[in-house]
Specification:
This protein is of the alpha/beta class. The protein is built from 17 helices and 15 strands. Residues 11-79 form the HTH gntR-type domain.
Length: 460
């Protein structure tokens, strides 16, 4: 067995061994049932500990590539490309905790399916500087409650930023939240009651599905196309069900990466007016784009659109800070619920974000993120094409690609990914009812990692 372990590499020996064993098995085209070298023999050949070999073998057993036979050793298992999908439909809010627990149990895994940029891409120095600035400021910014609508300094900065992207509102129409998920929760509890019907995109944001299900709100699924929601299906559902709201992710849609076209946007607003429907536009990836794009909130003359965004994706997931924009009367109701449910948001967090906006630190940070993501997007699309993957659409920005490898189901892809120390999420996670799917959400910010490269290459 010709294996080469690099002891100077930052990659652990166990990971190297597991990857090279997988490659060796594929290159040798070993038939199911072939016995691998014993633990003692392989450890001696490679000059490593037996525990290292055991862990590498165990990883391949966990992926389904090998099987362990008590007292006999390790044997090649059958890796089928057309077997039934065995991923479990995601029907509740436990998905995040299960996924996080699995990630913590396997700390070496590359989170190719995650929804954030790598830590090394974050503006950590600028955040630390803003924290120090706030810490040296007025003592009330460290100790006092935040006003119901949010910190005035932050809302002033948000007001300026909204004007720059064509959303003309007054400061009284802006409410700060603890991220976009908090904003969605406030809206659901204020606007809806059990039994109400709402339109949601499919595939879409799983946490929204969980939230609506928790509040016993019925979801009407609208397929997402490369240009936005399927208008024919949407119009038919509007006529038959008279839903209360439409939830939409206009720009760099999660998980498909697609963006709303002007034609679809104008028709959505027409349908909302005809059927008296409120649109909730989730624009948490707004700052990944610099320039003219199609947002419903910028085209909304009748104020039928509730707009929400967040700094979690571009700044920090730990600094929970988002905001929503709506009519003053609705903002007042949302602010009251916000205070009743949690006595407001974090004054300290909002001071930090406001400082980054005012100092230009945030602007510089996203200005560095955009071209970096664009470069990784172009490379990832080229590599997926080379390896035979099909993409839903070619995004012109953002960090997500929705893709699948024809001939492979999720169960087989998942085993192969784990063997390469890569974590992928089932497509069922992004379906309102948890229906099995062979599509995967790929975060291009992680696609140039050698583990992701190995995974893609081995699907050729």
């Amino acid at each position: 067995m010709n294996l080469t372990l690099d002891r100077q590499s930052s990659s652990p020996l166990v990971q190297q061994l597991a990857e090279q064993l997988l490659q060796w098995i594929e290159q040798q085209r070993l038939r199911p049932g072939t016995r691998l070298p014993s633990i003692r023999q392989l450890a001696k050949e490679q000059g490593i500990s037996q525990s290292c070999v055991i862990e590498a073998y165990d990883r391949l057993v966990a992926t389904g590539l090998l099987e362990a036979r008590h007292g006999a050793g390790f044997f090649v298992a059958e890796l089928r490309r057309s077997e039934p999908v065995v991923d479990h439909p995601v029907r509740d809010e436990a998905f995040d905790s299960r996924w996080q627990q699995f990630s913590e149990e396997r700390p070496g895994l590359l989170k190719l399916c995650c929804g954030w940029v790598p830590d090394s891409w974050r503006a950590t120095d600028a955040i630390a500087q803003a924290v120090r600035h706030v810490s040296r400021g007025p003592i009330e910014d460290l100790l006092d409650y935040c006003p119901p609508l949010g910190l005035a300094a932050l809302r002033s900065q948000l007001h300026k930023g909204l004007g720059q992207i064509g959303i003309q509102v007054s400061p009284q129409q802006i409410l700060t939240t603890q991220g976009a998920s908090h904003a969605l929760d406030l809206l659901v509890r204020t606007l809806l009651k059990p039994g109400d019907k709402v339109l949601v995109e499919s595939p879409g944001y799983y946490n929204l599905y969980n939230l609506l299900r928790h509040h016993q709100v019925e979801m009407l699924e609208v397929p997402r196309t490369p240009s936005g929601p399927d208008l024919q299906v949407l119009e038919d559902l509007l006529k038959r069900h008279r839903p209360r709201c439409l939830y939409i992710n206009s720009l760099y849609h999660n998980p498909t990466g697609s963006s709303l076209t002007p034609k679809v946007a104008y028709r959505l607003l027409e349908l909302a007016r005809e059927h008296d429907v409120q649109i909730i536009e989730d624009d948490i990836y707004a700052d990944f784009q610099d320039g003219a794009v199609t947002r419903l909130a910028t085209l909304d003359a009748e104020q039928r659109v509730i707009y929400l965004a967040s700094f979690s994706k571009t700044l920090s997931s730990s600094l929970r800070c988002g905001y929503l924009v709506a009519k003053p009367a609705l903002i007042a109701r949302l602010a009251e619920l916000k205070m009743v449910a949690g006595l407001g948001t974090s004054r300290f967090t909002e001071q930090v974000v406001a400082q980054m906006l005012a100092s230009g630190g945030y602007r510089k940070s996203v200005a560095r993120l955009r071209p970096r993501l664009a470069q990784h997007m172009a490379k990832a699309l080229g590599q997926l094409e080379t390896c035979g993957w099909e993409v839903f659409t070619e995004p012109y920005g953002g960090m997500f690609v929705w893709a699948r490898r024809p001939g492979w189901d999720f169960a087989a892809l998942n085993r192969l990914a784990l063997a390469c120390s890569v974590l992928v999420a089932p497509g069922s996670a992004f379906d309102p009812q948890g229906v099995a799917s062979d599509w995967l959400r790929i975060n291009v910010a992680y696609a140039q990692d050698q583990r992701a490269q190995a995974f893609f290459q081995r699907t050729r």
